[in-house]
Amino acid sequence: MKRVTGIGGVFFKAKDPVALRAWYKTHLGVDVQAWGGAVFDWTDASGEPVAGATAWTISADHAQEYAPSTSSFMINYRVANLDALLAALREEGCNVLEVGEPSEFGKFAWLLDPEGNKVELWEPVPGQ
């Protein structure tokens, strides 16, 4: 069974998220949107679009979406078969926190790595 197939998102906290978003937009050209992040659409080696995207967001340092982790970041990993992977992870003794309800974006689950970092697993809807 293939486990992680790519990175679906990078999320991190900042003391001043508005200023940091502006810095990334100004100096690195990140197309930060009003919702606080950007989406990087995937392309092939020639620059042609392919299915897939990576989300990028900056949250306030007091945001709770990474709880129970106290880490300042969370990575979202794309997976091909979330249910099978979760079964394997539980069998291997991993700390699976919760499984979200399927949504228009796909299926999500969260776990903690051995150092307490929250990890998000995402099985996108077919074709995404």
UniProtKB/TrEMBL annotation:
It comes from Duganella fentianensis. Pfam families: Glyoxalase_6. Residues 6-124 form the VOC domain. InterPro entries: Anthracycline_SecMetBiosynth, Glyas_Bleomycin-R_OHBP_Dase, Glyoxalase_6, VOC_core. This is VOC family protein. PROSITE patterns: VOC. PANTHER family: GLYOXALASE (PTHR33993:SF5), GLYOXALASE-RELATED (PTHR33993). Gene3D superfamilies: 2,3-Dihydroxybiphenyl 1,2-Dioxygenase, domain 1. The lineage of its organism: Bacteria, Pseudomonadati, Pseudomonadota, Betaproteobacteria, Burkholderiales.
